[in-house]
Every structure is written in C-alpha cells, then in structure tokens.
C-alpha cells in the first residue's frame, strides 16, 4: 500500500455549540478513487471545506505527502496541488473553454498581454491527455456545451494545474445516461494517471463502479472506510443511514479496524 497523499487524523470542527465533525480520520491515496458518502447533514461539505482551507479546524492534524500542513485559506490547498470541482462548476458561460480553464490564472507577457496561443495549446493538450473526445474545439463558448461537456471542462481545468488530488462534488448530478458514462470514465482516468480522487456522491451505482474505497460519514463521524470490492451497496446504505452495518460488523469503526 502506498503512502497516502492526504492524511487527516482526529479532525474536529464546531460552529458555536454545534459539534459538526468528530475525530474524523480520512486517507486519500494516489491512483485511487475514494468515495465520500453520507446523508444530508452528515458533515461532507464541512469536511471538504476544511480540506479546502475555507473552514479552519479546531483540532486534529492534516498531512500532505507525509508532511504536516496548515490550510488557512484556499490558496494553501491550491499550492499543495489540491483542486476542487464543485457542483456549480464555477464556469463563465460568456467565455470559451480556454478562457474558462485559465480564468484567474491567465498566462501573460510582461504582466499585461495575454499569451492566447499558449493557453489554447495547453487547454487542448490537457483535454487530449484525458482522452476527451466530446469537445470539438477549445474555442467553443461554455454556454453552448451540454451538462456532461461542462463537467468535463471543469475537471480538465482542475487537472491543468498539475493537481495531485482532485475533489469532485456530485459530478454526475442531473446528467443523462450517456453523459454520466463519459464523466465516470474521466474520473477513473484521473486516478489511473496517479492522482488521488475524492468523489462525493449520493449515487451508489456510480460509487460502486468507479471507487476503490468508500468512506461513510454518519452524524459527523467516519462510520467506516472500506474497500469497495469487499462490500455491497446495501452495506454502504446501512452505514449511511444507521452508522453501522450488521453484515460488516461495524459500529463507528476506525480505519485500522476495517483495513
């Protein structure tokens, strides 16, 4: 087993008197898709915001590539190579694919003039490296793209910056069958290229298909972290809804107890 890229230990987070995350342990490994699942209010969004540096943590440690780090704001996460693709995708409809992929990080000459050709080349090469064939031109306006194509552009934007970990928030929500297939294939390719991928999803079919392991949150705790091949959809649903699975014999078990 390789060393984890991201190692979260005993993380706690409260908002006033409300204790949202309780001693959360989570490891993200290179070359693997880790599905982060849980019911609404389980703490998934809060945990992701802690990883992103949006929410400060109250206690616990975060290590990246074996080194303890502090995530004070999103720039800290970006500097480490952690990129996020949220549900709203953060794409500008009035800009083309290249402009969106470099939005806020444009390549400039002399600090003033945009190097348009180089940005277009890098955008095209990034899409090619991900075997994306659903986009005909990197000069297409995002407004003209389908939902699946938009998701592809958002993921490619994250990959462009030499990311080591990509966090995807419900990437197949509201997509049709064919578009979902394209996005899931892309998620798998991200891991196959050596990245650590965090997939946040309520769709158990997607989770079972592409995830190598599943971390189930229940009321702010990690109920279990299990290898997908060793569990079933029913067992994962039990972890999400009850914090335990009779078949697995788990009740708020730790990672070491499971793996």
Automatic annotation (TrEMBL):
Keywords from the UniProt entry: ATP-binding, Nucleotide-binding
Domain ABC transporter: 6-244
Example of a GO MF term: ATP hydrolysis activity
Pfam families: ABC_tran
Name of the protein in question: Sugar ABC transporter ATP-binding protein
Organism encoding this protein: Nocardioides mangrovicus
